Amino acid sequence: MKGIQYLTDNKGGKTAMLIDLKKHDKRLNNLIEDMLDVVECERIKDEPTVPFEVAVKSLYKKDRISKKVYDNFTF
Fold first, then answer.
1. Per-residue pLDDT tens for 1-54?
2. Is residue 75 domain-resident?
3. Gap between the Cα atoms of 16 and 72, Å rounded
4. 22: domain range?
5. Structure pTM?
6. What φ, ψ does residue 9 adopt, rounded to 5°?
7. Inter-residue contact 20 to 3 (CB < 8 Å)
Protein backbone atom coordinates (compact mmCIF):
# COMPACT_ATOMS: atom_id res chain seq x y z
CA MET A 1 0.00 0.00 0.00
CA LYS A 2 1.40 3.41 -0.92
CA GLY A 3 2.43 5.54 2.01
CA ILE A 4 2.82 2.62 4.43
CA GLN A 5 6.10 0.99 5.40
CA TYR A 6 6.76 -1.80 7.86
CA LEU A 7 9.72 -2.11 10.18
CA THR A 8 10.82 -5.67 10.77
CA ASP A 9 13.00 -7.50 13.24
CA ASN A 10 15.96 -9.73 12.31
CA LYS A 11 13.59 -12.62 11.53
CA GLY A 12 11.43 -10.54 9.19
CA GLY A 13 8.57 -10.18 11.65
CA LYS A 14 6.72 -6.88 11.48
CA THR A 15 7.37 -4.77 14.55
CA ALA A 16 6.11 -1.33 13.55
CA MET A 17 4.35 0.55 10.80
CA LEU A 18 5.14 3.97 9.34
CA ILE A 19 2.19 5.77 7.78
CA ASP A 20 2.54 8.83 5.55
CA LEU A 21 -0.34 10.88 6.92
CA LYS A 22 -0.34 13.19 3.91
CA LYS A 23 -1.18 10.29 1.59
CA HIS A 24 -4.20 9.05 3.50
CA ASP A 25 -7.62 10.56 3.89
CA LYS A 26 -9.01 12.34 6.91
CA ARG A 27 -10.84 9.26 8.21
CA LEU A 28 -7.58 7.35 8.52
CA ASN A 29 -5.92 10.33 10.17
CA ASN A 30 -8.79 10.52 12.67
CA LEU A 31 -8.49 6.80 13.36
CA ILE A 32 -4.76 7.17 13.99
CA GLU A 33 -5.34 10.13 16.32
CA ASP A 34 -7.91 8.08 18.25
CA MET A 35 -5.46 5.18 18.50
CA LEU A 36 -2.76 7.52 19.84
CA ASP A 37 -5.25 8.86 22.40
CA VAL A 38 -5.82 5.29 23.62
CA VAL A 39 -2.07 4.73 23.85
CA GLU A 40 -1.68 7.95 25.87
CA CYS A 41 -4.55 6.96 28.20
CA GLU A 42 -2.93 3.60 28.77
CA ARG A 43 0.40 5.29 29.51
CA ILE A 44 -1.03 7.58 32.21
CA LYS A 45 -3.70 5.29 33.70
CA ASP A 46 -1.75 4.67 36.91
CA GLU A 47 -0.74 8.27 37.50
CA PRO A 48 -2.32 10.05 40.45
CA THR A 49 -5.51 11.96 39.71
CA VAL A 50 -6.86 15.29 40.90
CA PRO A 51 -10.56 15.80 41.60
CA PHE A 52 -12.21 18.08 39.03
CA GLU A 53 -13.19 20.63 41.67
CA VAL A 54 -9.59 20.92 42.90
CA ALA A 55 -8.29 21.31 39.34
CA VAL A 56 -10.79 24.08 38.50
CA LYS A 57 -10.06 25.96 41.72
CA SER A 58 -6.33 25.67 41.05
CA LEU A 59 -6.74 27.02 37.52
CA TYR A 60 -8.79 29.93 38.84
CA LYS A 61 -6.24 30.76 41.55
CA LYS A 62 -3.46 30.72 38.93
CA ASP A 63 -5.56 33.09 36.78
CA ARG A 64 -5.80 30.48 34.00
CA ILE A 65 -9.60 30.76 33.84
CA SER A 66 -11.74 33.84 34.32
CA LYS A 67 -14.12 34.47 37.19
CA LYS A 68 -17.00 34.25 34.71
CA VAL A 69 -15.93 30.74 33.66
CA TYR A 70 -15.19 29.72 37.25
CA ASP A 71 -18.63 30.89 38.42
CA ASN A 72 -20.31 28.63 35.84
CA PHE A 73 -19.10 25.56 37.74
CA THR A 74 -21.24 24.31 40.59
CA PHE A 75 -19.43 22.47 43.34
1. 788 899 999 999 999 998 887 887 777 878 888 999 999 999 999 999 999 999
2. no
3. 46
4. 1-69
5. 0.46
6. -85, -175
7. yes
